[in-house]
Amino acid sequence: MDARLIEPFFATLERANPHPVTELEYTNVFELLAAVLLSAQATDVGVNKATRRLFPLAGTPQRILELGLPALTEHIRTIGLFRTKAKNLYETCRLLVERHGGEVPRTREALEALPGVGRKTANVVLNVAFGEPTMAVDTHIFRVANRTGLAPGRNPLEVERQLLDRVPGAYLVDAHHWLILHGRYVCQARQPRCAECSVSAYCDSAPKSA
To answer: Count of CB atoms within 10 A of residue 131's CB?
Structure first.
């Protein structure tokens, strides 16, 4: 994608959705962290179904610890890799209570020191909870960035660095939401909906007649 097309690409996405938000449901920063941790290799819809039952009972690290690992595991049984995720979330809660006074830390280093929290999860929390211009490259963003030519890369970190370099500052805070939603509903993996795409004019891969 020509650099001159990036601004109108994002301006178009912004006009369609001026205030994009995550589709994960949460009411506080800890619930956001927990939901993102649980969402790895799972759908937001599936995570939301489980957390609608879990969070009213245990929406803080201390409450999760009081709930206990067996009960936590049972509450998220419908989510893929639930046993591993339950152990990671439980241990994360223990560390949040012991090291951070039950609060979610605001630095990448402290977030990534938590079990089950990698770079992508940390980026989501830093962006959504704390308004930092991070880029959480999931499978949708990776696909859109490469397919459109916006930020081609061989792995998520390469794509992340390209996006941070190429996306205009005015759009950085919301960019990862627009790209995720675009990949989820329009620029889909098997059958991209180019004929319905509002930004096909700027895309390297879209048919010229789209």
So the answer is: 9
